[in-house]
Amino acid sequence: MKIIAIANQKGGVGKTTTAINLSTCLAVAGARVLLLDLDPQGNASSGLGHRAAEGQSLYSVLTGDDPLEGKIQTTRFENLSIIPAQMELAGCEVELVRSANHLVRLREVLEPLKRERRFDYLLIDCPPSLGILMTSALAAADGLLIPMQCEYFGLEGLARIVDIHDQIATSGINPSVTLEGILMTMYDGRTSHCRAVVEEVRRAFADLVYPINIPRSIAVAESQSFEKALLEYDPHGKASQAYKQIAEIFLSRQDPT
Amino acid sequence: MKIIAIANQKGGVGKTTTAINLSTCLAVAGARVLLLDLDPQGNASSGLGHRAAEGQSLYSVLTGDDPLEGKIQTTRFENLSIIPAQMELAGCEVELVRSANHLVRLREVLEPLKRERRFDYLLIDCPPSLGILMTSALAAADGLLIPMQCEYFGLEGLARIVDIHDQIATSGINPSVTLEGILMTMYDGRTSHCRAVVEEVRRAFADLVYPINIPRSIAVAESQSFEKALLEYDPHGKASQAYKQIAEIFLSRQDPT
Ligand SMILES: Nc1ncnc2c1ncn2[C@@H]1O[C@H](COP(=O)(O)OP(=O)(O)OP(=O)(O)O)[C@@H](O)[C@H]1O
Ligand SMILES: Nc1ncnc2c1ncn2[C@@H]1O[C@H](COP(=O)(O)OP(=O)(O)OP(=O)(O)O)[C@@H](O)[C@H]1O
Ligand SMILES: [Mg+2]
Ligand SMILES: [Mg+2]
């Protein structure tokens, strides 16, 4: 089971949109996927129609000894399960800090799933912060997928998360976490600013950047208001098709082992 | 001196863009403004050309006993000063938690400025998280200004921050903090989803919602890439004009005392 953290401490760059749509596209393509919502705001959960009540998130597993199994919910997609988020998760930022092994607690908790081989991919939707939740996701992940907006502050955010990834890898916390890829989101080809930012990222990161940009499309926010994935709400739309292609490229880049 | 926290735990909704452009518009209108960048990512600082080195943020004042005075920098705007942010601020999330009065430390630190009457407004740019920095800003503020995007996840975020404001007020942490207003950002009138979200917010919050929406405009990200405020970069553009009007309405809503 490969663990992918979808992370970027910059806000509103499409982490959740990518988590929802990559997980559903992969599931429909036949991969067995578990989506872990690690953002106390629970956008990925509500965007898929799995808004959680207290007690349903990973909180009591991370800070107590509740079993992981009780938090995994099936979804209307045959190959997709979800562990939803709830406000209680915010408590981890304070409580986990106090325990000795706080950065690797999530990794420990997910270990049994790796052995079970029940899922092919575990995608983690991270909150826009540099706190314990996001760092734990990086400490547990095999790969880091970075969505980013094609805008100036996006470049600053990218430099920051790549730097954080380096630190996690070189500090020994998680030596094997790779950069899975960089995904340009909310792309609007008509603006030269947007094109210039994409060119700069491609120049600096070459093949790490997905060759398909996710176009800006109102269908994205609309689909979320109906708690649907793009492939349900607007299957032939440009954003839906782009995520489908991203899922195909993602699968083609995986180790066949 | 009135302290305004510009906050919304949802990411990428225009907090920093509002901090930069409201502060500069108010300064040019004659108000004496201090902009406090409380986001370790420092977008407001770099967006105005005041990228900070280690030691220049509020960090050592909040966690140690460095004097506040040494962190206030003048800017090219006569009436605008800034306390920039730097990555070191992220340390507050861990270190402040450990001290007894952690939620009111920021308020204590800002107290002398209130007495000095050196500034008319202190605007605080908050990070997109529910951590210590954002909560401290709410505990120190006289008013809370909430920028939000006209999208579904934006509605969820609004409900959340309004709820947090209630808790801060009713818990006694800061009984007098008011809701200064709600500002709709990145408005695109051509999409019915956007219009529907704005209508819903206006229906629920009436006059608390600014009557002017900030329109989506590529000039915003462009201005930030040149480290300029909109009123310098694109003074006659629609986003610049909208922020100018917001500043006028903001001033007209202040107590004449
Ligand atoms: N391709 C797109 N076209 C148009 N809107 C989009 C697109 N991708 C995302 N959005 C919208 O932009 C907003 C931010 O996206 P999203 O919530 O996925 O970002 P995020 O990085 O998860 O945010 P946060 O940092 O708050 O977790 C949402 O309202 C979403 O609907
Ligand atoms: N009116 C607008 N039109 C077009 N782009 C905008 C507008 N307002 C903000 N943006 C862009 O959207 C992105 C997010 O805005 P901004 O950084 O101000 O949000 P934020 O709430 O401060 O984000 P964070 O949660 O990461 O602190 C930036 O790249 C900014 O340039
Ligand atoms: Mg999100
Ligand atoms: Mg910001």
Please describe the structure with a list of short key phrases separated by commas or semicolons.
7 strands, seven-stranded mixed sheet, 43% helix, homodimer, globular, 11 helices, binds magnesium ion, 257 residues, alpha/beta
Strand content of chain A: 5-15%
Overall mean pLDDT of chain A stands at: 95
* Gyration radius from CA atoms of chain A, angstroms: 17 Å
The SSE order of chain A reads EHEHHEEHHEHEHEHHHH
Largest interface: A-B, 36 and 36 residues
The parts of chain A where pLDDT drops under 50 for at least 5 residues are none
Bound ligand species: adenosine-5'-triphosphate, magnesium ion
Amino-to-carboxy terminus distance of chain A? 11 Å
Number of helices of chain A: 11
- How would you write the strand order of the largest sheet of chain A? 3-4-2-5-1-6-7
- Please give the largest β-sheet of chain A: 7 strands, mixed
**Oligomer classification:** homodimer
Structural class of chain A: alpha/beta
Number of strands of chain A: 7
Give a short summary of the structure.
The structure is a homodimer of 257-residue chains. By secondary structure, the first copy, chain A, is an alpha/beta fold.
